[in-house]
Amino acid sequence: MFSLIFIFKKHVVMEQTDSLLKIKVIPNAPLLVEGKVELTLADGTVKVVDKPHLCRCGASKNKPFCDGAHAKIGFKD
Length: 77
Ligand code: FES
Prior knowledge:
Radius of gyration: 12 Å
Distance between the termini: 29 Å
Strand content: 35-45%
Bound molecules: FE2/S2 (inorganic) cluster
Shape: globular
Number of helices: 1
Strand order of the largest sheet: 2-1-5-6
Number of domains: 1
Order of helices and strands: EEEEEEEH
């Protein structure tokens, strides 16, 4: 599986290329992308990442990735 995910101005835009992209919402925690993806960040940097956890609480110091800060701030759905 190979998919593209673009992070643009804090919005996640996903583009499927050749198979079904699966994303799991973890309760009170990040989005888990299942499989390998190419991430294009807002500054144009491209990263290929396997099974990234993407922050949805806004508190990560390593956006767009989760750094565990959701637990510290008590993020709830
Ligand atoms: S969801 Fe984990 S730091 Fe934001």
